[in-house]
């Protein structure tokens, strides 16, 4: 039988940015054991996708070249591996496919049953794909580190979300507001109304002196910061934190790890926590349900056909998305 072929986006070395992406025709992957094969309807990009291409996780990621980027995929199951129990051909799903495998920027992609969840008709493929890594990254630090209970119980906490207009930030603001929180958010001037509409109680323009200082207009001190921006030093955060305030850094670099170690060694009550998401199926299910119930919305910045994936890539590198960037085969 002739091998089935598909269109995909690959790169075969570090660097190169959008121009390093190649359009290729390659065999459709096979769903092994506990994997499902999806006909991809939408994939969403995350900054880590192009950072891997830049070599930020060299030599661990990619595990090998050529590499098809893309971890957040929504689509329809067209084949199931022999050990798959919970899904069948024709099911609409959303999945996270780990970075070491990638594979999302293609017409077909495999995903592990462990990180695949059903997608109800009320949640579009683009909305679901937009939710995956960004949603999980917003959810985990809020609930597991900041201790916000999303059923609205628990003591009130003051939360700061930086880069609240971005893929992670716009979801973090909405999730934080499901809890008993007062949310301060930062974004650019053009997005202030947008971020307020997500539920933020006060919004700072990061290009003003008050915004750059992260100073709450109502004088609050933050119990936790979901830090989605980059380049803000500890010395800026420190005076704005409550006694036991934590900065949860989603893009930790060397200085974050140094601050983390120093704060631990000196038994500081205020802490910096370098954070890397651990995607969990139950959390993705929960987020999909929130979208279905109309309690969380994923905002799409822009949509690109797979044939223009390099434009989507460039848009993500540019760093000015409002919400999520989607690629559709
Ligand atoms: N640790 C993890 O597991 C994990 C997982 C996912 C993402 N991340 C990281 O989290 C970061 C955010 O990801 P993302 O997908 O949300 O990025 P994104 O969508 O590309 O963020 C873009 C947005 O950030 C805003 N922004 C940029 N700098 C800002 C600043 N200093 N203050 C306020 N707003 C600012 C931009 O606003 P303007 O256009 O107005 O400048 C834009 O709306 C990235 O570094 C990503 O790699 C980490």
Oligomer: single chain
Helix content: 25-40%
Shape: globular
What Rg is obtained from the alpha carbons, in whole angstroms?
20 Å
* Strand residue percentage: 25-35%
Q: Write the element-wise H/E pattern from the N-terminal end onward.
A: EEEHEEEEHEHEHEHEHEHEHEHE
Bound heterogens, unique: NADP nicotinamide-adenine-dinucleotide phosphate
Number of domains: 2
The CATH topology of the largest domain turns out to be Quinone Oxidoreductase, Chain A, domain 1
Please name the fourth-level CATH homologous superfamily of the largest domain. Medium-chain alcohol dehydrogenases, catalytic domain
Mean pLDDT: 97
Number of helices: 9
Report the structural category. Answer: alpha/beta
Taking pLDDT < 50 over at least 5 consecutive residues as the criterion, the unreliable ranges are none
CATH architecture of the largest domain: Alpha-Beta Complex
Q: Work out the number of β strands.
A: 15
**Whole-Å distance between the termini?**
25 Å
- Characterize the largest beta sheet: strand count, sense, and whether it forms a barrel: 7 strands, mixed
Task: Quickly name the level 1 CATH class of the largest domain.
Answer: Alpha Beta
Pfam families: ADH_N, ADH_zinc_N_2
GO molecular function: oxidoreductase activity
InterPro entries: ADH-like_N, Chloroplast_QOR, ER, GroES-like_sf, NAD(P)-bd_dom_sf
Protein name: Enoyl reductase (ER) domain-containing protein
